[in-house]
Specification:
420 residues; alpha/beta; FAD/NAD(P)-binding domain; D-Amino Acid Oxidase, Chain A, domain 2; nine-stranded mixed sheet; six-stranded mixed sheet; binds flavin-adenine dinucleotide
Length: 420
């Protein structure tokens, strides 16, 4: 078969959203021989995928577990706690909260953990393959992550998580005192306990990753369209038409919706509403930290991370439930910086930037990686919540497998759109 005929028979696919999920999918589909149009209302990687904590975190923990929701009332009452619900948004969050609590019942929790871990089992090898395919293996660090505990009681409070890691055969090592400082000398001697998670790697610059994915897709022949997608329609011949606000119409064989938290609006227009909410999170990027750290650090009790990145040290986390439109409240990340200085006493806070992003979160804390239940030829990749960076390569592989009809490495039933 000549190249010309191959060109003529190439299936076309529009990928809506150039965050880490959409950019990874665009690259993977173009690599598999489809003709991709990647569409974004802005530049690739400028929304939530820009400022995450850079962790490829394989130790999936169902957010809806009793150990989390038991802590939530205390967190909500603590002005310095990791979760903050704006009173004006509480009523709007109620349906999501009820689903979140329902997802915490023991039988459902086990299903959710199995589903999350089925993605985690592939996440690191898929990520490495993706990085080498875009010629950027150096974007991933070799070091793992240290989970730190300031007291034995904090460690005991995280027992459920440790047991879960044991159950799934996840690699980890419990460290005391000196052994912690041997690995990461910047950590305070007041940290008596840590768990080393050697396979939880970090990405030196998550924004650069998205830029590279989008550029690599383009280098293979994908095109990029700038504009706001308003709706998707099906035409009589089975193709789909992507309608943009500026009047552009893109006719295509397939569509993948990967617009982060904004996928909610598009899904509703397609007649399949999804309970997607924003869990707002913050970071502070410290360009002149005055120290070098090797390991990324997570403090589970305070639910935040300290990550060495290409541009200094990033401190971040927080969950703020306040919807899409409320202005950021940068008092939140400043609390985290103070906690970070307690864990890492040498950390200087000079030359900083602050950022807020919208985790696209579903109440059962696992993503939607699914065909549409309403419109054939349309797929969804959204709702990755706290783990969108981690699951980007695996999601891209699964979506590409579904679109091309290849054998799936993971059972995607738990990630179907119509499970709610
Ligand atoms: C503080 C914080 C820390 C985090 N830390 C980690 C971590 O360490 N590890 C991890 O795995 N995950 C982490 N996450 C989560 C992760 O960042 C997200 O899950 C991930 O970035 C979501 O990617 P996305 O591509 O779905 O969405 P986005 O990055 O938000 O991309 C969506 C894209 O769609 C475009 N778009 C939206 N609507 C339209 C439209 N109508 N038309 C055209 N374009 C549109 C937007 O412009 C945007 O570029 C963190 C998140 C936060 C906030």
């Amino acid at each position: 078969m000549g190249d010309g005929i191959m060109e003529e028979t190439k299936k076309t696919v529009a990928v809506v959203g150039a965050g880490v999920i959409g950019a990874a999918i665009a690259f993977e589909l173009q690599r598999r021989g489809l003709q991709v149009t990647l569409i974004d209302k802005g530049e690739p990687g400028r929304e939530t995928s820009y400022g995450n904590m850079a962790s490829v975190a394989l130790d999936f923990a169902a957010g809806s577990g009793p150990s989390t929701w038991r802590k939530i009332p205390g967190w909500l009452l603590d002005p310095e706690g990791p979760v903050w619900l704006r009173p004006s948004y509480a009523l709007k969050m109620l349906p999501w909260f009820l689903r979140f609590i329902a997802a915490g019942r023991p039988s459902r929790l086990r299903e959710i953990e199995d589903a999350g871990m089925s993605l985690s089992a592939h996440a690191l090898s898929d990520f490495r393959a993706m990085l080498s395919a875009i010629d950027a293996p150096g974007l991933m660090t070799d070091e793992g992550c240290l989970a730190i505990y300031e007291t034995e009681a904090e460690f005991a409070g995280d027992r459920g998580h440790v047991e879960m890691m044991r159950r799934y055969g996840f690699k980890f090592d419990v460290l005391d005192g000196g052994a912690i400082r041997e690995l990461e000398p910047t950590l305070s001697p007041s940290i008596p306990k840590a768990v080393l998670l050697p396979d939880n790697k970090s990405i030196r610059n998550p924004y650069e990753l998205v830029v590279k994915l989008a550029a690599s897709a383009r280098a293979l022949g994908a095109s990029f369209v700038s504009g706001v997608v308003r709706n998707i329609q099906k035409s009589g011949d089975g193709t789909a038409v992507v309608l943009l606000e500026d009047g552009q119409r893109i006719t295509t064989d397939f569509v993948v919706l990967a617009a982060g938290v904004h996928t909610r609006t598009l899904a509703a227009k397609l007649g399949e509403p999804i309970p997607l909410e924003t869990e707002r999170g913050y970071h502070t990027q410290i360009m002149k930290p005055g120290i070098d750290m090797r390991y990324s650090v997570i403090w589970p009790h305070r639910a935040f991370m300290i990550t060495p990145t290409a541009g200094g040290i990033r401190v971040g986390g927080n969950v703020e439930l306040a919807g899409l439109d409320a202005a950021p409240d940068f008092r939140r990340p400043r609390v985290l910086v103070r906690h970070a200085q307690r864990a890492v006493p040498g950390l200087k806070v000079e030359d900083t930037t602050e950022w807020m992003g919208h985790r696209p979160s579903l109440p059962d804390t696992i993503p939607i990686i699914s065909s549409s239940s309403k419109m054939p030829g349309v797929w969804y990749a959204t709702g990755h919540g706290h783990l969108g960076l981690t699951y980007s390569a695996t999601t891209a592989r699964l979506i590409a497998d579904m679109v091309t009809g290849a054998k799936l490495a993971v059972d995607v039933t738990p990630f179907r759109i119509n499970r709610f």
